Amino acid sequence: MRASRLIFVLFLIVVSCRGKVFEPCELAKLFKYEYNEPLTKYLGSNLPFAMCVAGYHHYDTSYRRQHPNGTVAYGIFGLTESPNGPDRCTNSRYDATDDQLEDDFKCFTKTVLVHKDKAYMYHRLCASDLTRKYMCQENEYFDIVEILEPIYKDILDLSHGEEHVVVKFLKAHNIDFYEPPKRGSILIWIIKTYIWPIMKEYPSYILYPLIAICGILVPRLLR
């Protein structure tokens, strides 16, 4: 009887610690509600950015990408640490590939974003021209959070995270890695594409409310 109980307990431990592939909105809710403290402490509450980085690792806590030089990126943030060895960001042994994510925020900040080139690459890959925005909802009436979904989700898999390969990949798609879109240019595009045609077509009693609505929506789009 004791043996069977022990086996059951061990089974529960294994199940609770194994990795998981999340649905984007499921992970966003988890970040917002269960991991709000490390999200705030290490990423300044920038949930869209955290979701974007997770998207490049397929929302998979057991993600694993091996570089030709032998280096391995693990987990939902692509941490280049041994998943079962001593870790310099926690000074302990922890598994970067399980679904316990609190230490992952800390390690991502201290072992990845601490390097300026890596920090720039992730922020560039999460810029408006390389991501799509959509809103996660609790139900049809209540929005949870706006998240960023990568357009080229496999770019890190294909490039092994090498900047020069990322640059070449984006260049093939007519995107400049070193010139992220400027907020002003996005605003001008919105005005030219949507607002100006309306201004030419509709009388002022329709135009003014539309301008007011745009004044509310445009800042949200540029966040």
Structure commentary:
The protein is of the alpha+beta class and 223 residues long. It has two domains: 18-178, Lysozyme (Orthogonal Bundle), CATH 1.10.530.10; 182-223, no CATH class. It is 52% helix and 13% strand. The chain is built from ten helices and six strands. The chain has helices spanning 2-17, 24-33, 36-43, 47-56, 102-111, 116-125, 155-159, 163-172, 183-201, 204-222, and strands spanning 64-66, 72-74, 86-87, 92-93, 131-139, 142-150. The strands form three sheets. The protein has a two-stranded antiparallel sheet. A two-stranded antiparallel ribbon has the order 3-4. A hairpin with a 2-residue loop joins strand 5 and strand 6 (142-150). Helix 3 (36-43) packs parallel to helix 5 and helix 9 (183-201) runs antiparallel to helix 10. Mean pLDDT is 79; it is low at 3-17.
Question: TL;DR?
Answer:
The protein is an alpha+beta fold and 223 residues long.
**Major sheet: arrangement of strands:** 1-2
Sequence stretches where pLDDT stays below 50 over 5 or more residues: 3-17
What distance lies between the first and last C-alpha atoms, to the nearest angstrom? 58 Å
Strand proportion: 5-15%
Helix content: 40-55%
At CATH level 2, the architecture of the largest domain is Orthogonal Bundle
CATH names the topology of the largest domain as Lysozyme
SSE layout and pairing:
Layout: H1 2-17, H2 24-33, H3 36-43, H4 47-56, E1 64-66, E2 72-74, E3 86-87, E4 92-93, H5 102-111, H6 116-125, E5 131-139, E6 142-150, H7 155-159, H8 163-172, H9 183-201, H10 204-222
Antiparallel strand pairs: 1-2, 3-4, 5-6
Helix pairs in contact: 2-4, 3-5, 9-10
